């Protein structure tokens, strides 16, 4: 459930930033990527994950997958930005 919630938050962030900043595409992509990574990291750290692991193991796990979160944040931002760019034309 948490993963779906964070995915929806990532899409909303990407749509909002790319809609409000249509001209500087790469700046909007970079800003939404940073915000997506921050939101998903904080969400994974503080939302319940449905596991019985202690908080220290969860924090270590989240910091381990941080590069993967960054990569998917960039992908979401680029795809949503390009989609809005094509729709506006």
Rg calculated over all Cα atoms: 14 Å
Number of helices: 4
Structural class: mainly alpha
Instruction: Please estimate the helix content.
Output: over 70%
State the total count of DSSP E strands.
0
Report strand %. Answer: under 5%
Low-confidence stretches: none
Element pattern in H and E: HHHH
Return the average pLDDT rounded to an integer.
Answer: 85
Q: Could you say which overall geometry the principal axes of the C-alpha atoms support?
A: elongated
Structure description:
The chain is mostly helical and 89 residues long. Helices cover 83% and strands 0% of the residues. Helix 1 runs antiparallel to helix 2 (25-46), helix 1 (2-20) crosses helix 4 (66-88) and helix 2 (25-46) crosses helix 4 (66-88). The longest helix is centred in the last third of the chain and has 23 residues, at 66-88. The mean pLDDT is 85.
Jot down its keywords:
89 residues; mainly alpha; 4 helices
Topology readout:
Blueprint: H1 2-20, H2 25-46, H3 55-64, H4 66-88
Quick synopsis:
By secondary structure, the protein is mainly α.
């Amino acid at each position: 459930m948490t993963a779906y919630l964070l995915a929806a938050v990532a899409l909303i962030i990407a749509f909002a930033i790319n809609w409000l900043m249509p001209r500087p595409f790469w700046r909007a992509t970079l800003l939404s990527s940073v915000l997506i990574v921050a939101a998903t990291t904080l969400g994974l750290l503080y939302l319940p994950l449905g596991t019985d692991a202690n908080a220290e193991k969860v924090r270590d796990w989240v910091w381990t997958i941080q590069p993967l979160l960054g990569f998917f944040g960039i992908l979401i931002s680029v795809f949503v930005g390009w989609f809005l760019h094509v729709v506006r034309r």
